[in-house]
Amino acid sequence: MINLSGIVKTYPGSSGPVHALKGVSIQVNSGEIFGVIGKSGAGKSTLIRCINMLEKPTVGTVVVDGQELSSMSERDLRDARKKIGMIFQHFNLLSSRTVYDNIAFPLELVGWDKKKIEDAVLPLLDLVGLSDKRNQYPSQLSGGQKQRVGIARALASRPKVLLCDEATSALDPQTTQSILELLKDINKRLGLTIVLITHEMQVIKQICDRVAVIENGVIIEQGPVIDLFAKP
Ligand code: ADP
Ligand code: ADP
């Protein structure tokens, strides 16, 4: 489903170039949950952002669902990105919009009419367990509820891939559990391929099928979680 090959990413940086990724290759199979673990500064965020080309690799190819994103025009990339949803550590919700309107937002951007948007958003509210919060604003929600909105918004464009950028790092352990369970449920029910980055081993052990360990911009190990790490 995802094939990153020979990815090099070098940032200009104020005190000379920063080599964030030094030739990284990963392959993610359709329907699996793939984790990337590493310390702060290892290159995780750069790597996951290369999958949807939010960061453009300096060298290397990015193929998602058979399409080579790394050679596309911006215009084609906009379309291709609809297959790739993303959720964030700090949720990135629009504070002036309700729960419903946050989820509807990406669909408004692509010009869907009101009725079609409602038909998409109501089942998503149900899926993430927030039907009764549809008219609340983000400031009225807990961290876990905000991330549920983030997940529903990411799913609105019916992506095949969901990218999770430290999605549980701002949450307490109990809330982390419930979000991980929701992600697992979505993975199973929708057959969605999930890629997540984390610095927490527990997240990897709990829901990932395969894992890559990144250190200093290099993947030092990659394989099934049960082979690389003992069960908890
Ligand atoms: P992680 O997500 O594992 O913490 P990052 O991908 O954020 O790692 O960062 C990898 C390296 O690239 C770090 O040294 C970081 O300081 C650097 N870096 C990240 N983004 C930028 C940027 N926009 N400009 C310059 N350096 C950056
Ligand atoms: P722009 O290119 O004008 O910045 P985008 O469509 O890239 O607009 O994104 C606008 C907002 O909508 C962002 O906050 C982004 O998180 C959200 N968004 C857009 N598309 C998706 C998607 N497929 N999944 C999740 N969120 C999305």
TrEMBL record:
<keyword id="KW-0029">Amino-acid transport</keyword>
<dbReference type="GO" id="GO:0005524">
    <property type="term" value="F:ATP binding"/>
</dbReference>
<keyword id="KW-0813">Transport</keyword>
<keyword id="KW-0547">Nucleotide-binding</keyword>
<keyword id="KW-1003">Cell membrane</keyword>
<dbReference type="GO" id="GO:0016887">
    <property type="term" value="F:ATP hydrolysis activity"/>
</dbReference>
<comment type="similarity">
    <text>Belongs to the ABC transporter superfamily.</text>
</comment>
<dbReference type="GO" id="GO:0005886">
    <property type="term" value="C:plasma membrane"/>
</dbReference>
<feature type="domain" description="ABC transporter">
    <location>
        <begin position="2"/>
        <end position="232"/>
    </location>
</feature>
<protein>
    <submittedName>
        <fullName>Methionine ABC transporter ATP-binding protein</fullName>
    </submittedName>
</protein>
<keyword id="KW-1278">Translocase</keyword>
<keyword id="KW-0067">ATP-binding</keyword>
<dbReference type="GO" id="GO:0006865">
    <property type="term" value="P:amino acid transport"/>
</dbReference>
<keyword id="KW-0472">Membrane</keyword>
